[in-house]
Amino acid sequence: MVKVEFLGPIQIDKKEFDVKSVRELKDELYKIPELEDWLISCAIAVNDKIINTLDTPLKDGDKVVLLPPVCGG
Amino acid sequence: MDNLEIYKGGVPVMDVLNRWYEEFKLEGYGAMIPFIGIVRPDNEIEGLSFDLYLPLLSEWFKKWQNLPDVKITMAHSFGDVMVGETSFLCGIFTKHRREGFKYLEEFVEDFKANAPIWKYDLKNGKRIFASDRAKELPQAGILKKG
Hints:
heterodimer; A: alpha+beta; about 25% strand; globular; B: seven-stranded mixed β-sheet
């Protein structure tokens, strides 16, 4: 299972998904209604590296985080 | 990471600046430029609140370490920081002031664009995401439909 964490203001608890790529994960995430408004503005990190392609493979135990728009300082 | 410090609540500004100054004053830097980010009383807020994601914050901050001509130190808060307190502090150490000011501007701009930190207004006892001030990360949009 792939563990997914929703950071910052996204008020959703961690979830686990049985997926093999970020592309497959994307499809699963769009099934969560509370997430819909966030998904287009998020960046994604796999095992704490931000990724640039949906073709990024995922394997059992990987950690994915969704990063919504930021504002530090 | 030694030069990145995280505090619950406001950063103890003078203690931290004093420690940085004492630590680096004999390392050949002729300029120490501090930036102190103070929480303003805008829009009748009582304060700000922050979430941060430390693994990626540390990773981002690494880019600014081990540069040949500058040392950069930084402190940031998580949780609640009230008006008049400080949530972000950095110190830029360079040989001369000019490159220090340049680095300060570049560093803070990069911080604003890329540091994985989320800000909330504290107003009437509520914690409200500051969506009007938040910016998408450069790598955002990968999950667009289609």
